[in-house]
UniProtKB/TrEMBL annotation:
Superkingdom, natural source: Bacteria
PANTHER family from the UniProt entry: 4-HYDROXY-4-METHYL-2-OXOGLUTARATE ALDOLASE 3-RELATED (PTHR33254), BLR3842 PROTEIN (PTHR33254:SF16)
GO molecular-function terms, A-Z: demethylmenaquinone methyltransferase activity; lyase activity; metal ion binding
Organism this protein belongs to: Pseudomonas fragi
Residues bound to substrate: 88-91, 110
EC number from the UniProt entry: 2.1.1.163, 4.1.1.3
GO BP: any one term: methylation
Protein name: Dimethylmenaquinone methyltransferase
List of residues binding Mg(2+): 111
Length: 212
């Protein structure tokens, strides 16, 4: 397998491991600002990223992206943290028809009931009834820094209730391998905890027991 390919069965492996374990296993600055949260509980995304940037209050780049995005991708949208209704039910229907599997945006979205009903996973900074214009497109399909994490086309984005991470595709296979090793160690630790051992003992912290 090429180091630039995503690991086999990455979607289900990411769902089992979760964003927190994969973040720790990556040893990278790949966490997105924690203010970007799921619009509905239980939303989950693990997919190749397709980045784009919108001008504040302008969603033209989203419409352009839907004609170019590879099927199976998640849209990663920078807006400069401007809260407006960049996305709603119309774009959701268009995205699902185009094979887009989710949206992560640092701006706002609307038509929340419809997004929930369609089970389209969206992670956003806010919700806003305010609409947008269609006058300019900052970039479509180009790498940029998305709220603390670099994103380029094809990087692996994982988003769940804990948060959003973006793993460079060259590091994805290693991150999954280390994440599975970490999860195995934690499973053994939790078994030991149920048997009465302490976290101080298991984490080699017993030297702190007698400190003030």
């Amino acid at each position: 397998m090429s180091t630039l390919a995503l690991p086999l069965n990455y979607h289900e492996r990411a769902r089992i491991l979760g964003s927190s374990t994969l973040y720790e296993a990556s040893h990278l600055a790949c966490a997105v600002d924690s203010g970007i949260r799921p619009i509905w509980d239980g939303a989950f995304i693990a997919a190749p990223a397709y980045p784009l940037q919108c001008a504040p209050g302008d969603n033209l780049a989203l419409h352009l992206a839907l004609e170019q995005v590879p099927r199976g991708s998640v849209l990663v949208v920078g807006t400069g943290n401007f809260i407006a209704g960049y996305w709603g039910e119309v774009l959701t229907v268009a995205a699902q028809a185009a094979g887009v599997v989710g949206l992560v945006i640092d701006g706002g979205v609307r038509d929340i009931a419809a997004l929930k009903a369609r089970r389209f996973p969206v992670f956003a900074r806010g919700i806003s009834v305010r609409g947008t214009v269609k006058a300019s497109a900052t970039s479509v399909g180009q790498a940029f820094n998305f709220n603390g994490a670099e994103v380029a086309p094809g990087d692996l984005l994982v988003a769940d209730d804990d948060g959003v991470i973006i793993i460079p595709k060259a590091h994805a296979a290693r991150t999954f391998a280390e994440g599975e090793s970490r999860a195995d160690k934690e499973a053994h630790m939790m078994q030991a905890l149920t048997e009465g051992r302490s976290t101080l003992e298991l984490m080699n912290l017993t030297h702190w027991r007698h400190r003030p």
